[in-house]
Amino acid sequence: MKLVIQRVKDATVTVKAQSIAHIDHGLLCYVGITHSDTLDIIDKLANKILKLRIFDDQQGIMNLNVKQVEGSILLVSQFTLYGNTKGSNRPSWIDAAKTEQAKPIFDALVNTLNKEIHTESGQFGEHMNVQYDNDGPVTILVEMEG
């Protein structure tokens, strides 16, 4: 699984000109799922997201996690994280899991995180517009195997 995690002041997902998800401050996480990913990775991944210390403490040092700053999480499915451009200028999506496999994993991640912290999500498989204010900017890449 690949994630792009951004510390944001706010983030909104719009589908067909309607806002479907919004957080004020916290983490915007783009989630890419590949063929070898299973539900077994969810708890480990959720724990990584929740404990990632990328928020400033009182001394201005990135030492706090999203729960400690009372933030929220916005998850957005992003199959393009598995775009392969080796040997071509047109990305191949062969490494991205198909919807039948990826959607249950994505939904499980949303549900697992939502038990710990306010979590919203984009709409799986839809064309989405994502607007956000990257705070820092802080952007972290996470790759994890089950």
Spell out the key features of this protein:
146 residues; alpha/beta; two-stranded antiparallel ribbon; D-tyrosyl-trna(Tyr) Deacylase, Chain: A
Report mean pLDDT, rounded to a whole number.
97
**Quick one: how many beta strands?**
8
Determine the CATH superfamily: D-tyrosyl-tRNA(Tyr) deacylase
How many structurally independent domains?
Answer: 1
Q: Could you give a quick summary of the protein structure above?
A:
By secondary structure, this protein is α/β, with parallel strands linked by helices. The chain has helices at 42-51, 99-114; strands at 2-15, 18-23, 26-32, 55-56, 62-64, 72-77, 119-121, 129-143.
Task: Give a written overview of the molecule.
Strands 1, 2, 3, 6, 7 and 8 form a 6-stranded mixed sheet that branches. The model has no long low-confidence stretch (mean pLDDT 97). The chain starts with a strand and ends with a strand. It is globular, with a radius of gyration of 15 Å. Helices cover 18% and strands 38% of the residues. It has helices at 42-51, 99-114; strands at 2-15, 18-23, 26-32, 55-56, 62-64, 72-77, 119-121, 129-143. α2 links the parallel β6 and β7 (119-121). α1 (42-51) packs across α2. It has a single domain, classed as D-tyrosyl-tRNA(Tyr) deacylase (D-tyrosyl-trna(Tyr) Deacylase, Chain: A, 3-Layer(bba) Sandwich).
